[in-house]
Design brief:
5 helices; binds fe (ii) ion; mainly alpha
């Protein structure tokens, strides 16, 4: 059965997001554990708390559509997390491996920003104002998480690492 309405697409997108966020709840503790730079570790831990809330919001949104048990598996997120795990396993220099973790994490955030942007617009088009508002809340937190990662990456962390190397 294909998509017969925007409503169907919204439901599919929400089920996909539910899977994506649930997978992230499992992956973020590993990212936090692997981070060397304390602000980066804290950013991952803080986003883990937010991500648990994102799962709840998606469940609430699915509830609005009468979907109790989403079954879809988000293969995009499986791939993104597999890439992140590869970064963790590579290890190496603390500063460099943190940069690789940020590279993986920002791909995740951008995936989510795209997905929530789509979901909030579909909800708006279909007249589900409550779902749109839930999606907007999460979209804002994903954007903040992405901005924080950029701030950490550009706030002297890498430069300090290079200086340390130069001094040794
Ligand atoms: Fe999220």
């Amino acid at each position: 059965m294909g998509f017969n309405s925007l409503n169907d697409v919204l439901q599919e997108q929400l089920e996909d997001l539910h899977s994506a966020e649930t997978q992230l709840v499992g992956a973020l503790p590993k990212m936090a554990q692997a981070a060397h730079h304390e602000p980066l570790r804290e950013a991952f831990q803080h986003h883990l708390d937010e991500t648990r809330e994102h799962v709840s919001r998606v469940e609430e949104a699915l509830g609005e559509l009468g979907v109790g048990h989403p079954t879809e598996v988000c293969k995009w997120m499986q791939g993104l997390i597999a890439e992140g795990e590869e970064m963790i396993q590579m290890g190496g220099d603390p500063m460099a491996s943190d940069a690789a973790l940020i590279a993986a994490a920002q791909r995740v955030e951008h995936y989510e920003i795209a997905a929530y942007g789509t979901a909030r617009q579909l909800a708006d088009d279909c007249g589900f104002d409550a779902i749109r508002d839930l999606m907007d809340q999460t979209l804002d937190e994903e954007s903040q998480a992405d901005k924080l990662l950029t701030k950490i990456a550009t706030g002297g962390m890498f430069k300090a690492g290079v200086n340390q190397q130069a001094a040794s």
